[in-house]
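User: quick one, fold this
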Amino acid sequence: MSGDDPFAQLERVIDQLAGAGAEDVGIPVDVVEDGETVEVTADLPGYEREDIDVRLRDGTQLEISAERSTDREEAEGRVHRRERRHEAVSRSLTLPAAVTAGETQASYASGVLTVRLPKVSRDDAGRDIPVN
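Assistant:
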């Protein structure tokens, strides 16, 4: 790394800070595809189930968002630091395969959201129409 161009190093740091693109900003996710499903696992620690919104758009776009607020209690005495606040995160993903919303399942436990999306079967993808 010491032989790297310093501008290339700086560009990598800027990319990391900026998220290296719109899809890399927000919620860290894993996306795994097998023969029949696409599974998205997202880290959302500290959120409640009702704080989380998951939407499927056009069978290929998954949107995850979460929003929470920390109540600001009035403290007796002089407040020296107040770091708890409102926080909102979101992530939009292009899925590796077309999916159907029909049997989609989402669960949230221990700060981890798991969304299982069944892939569109060949029957759902369209049918051949014989030409007479």
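User: anything notable?
Assistant: Residues 20-24 have pLDDT under 50 and may be disordered.
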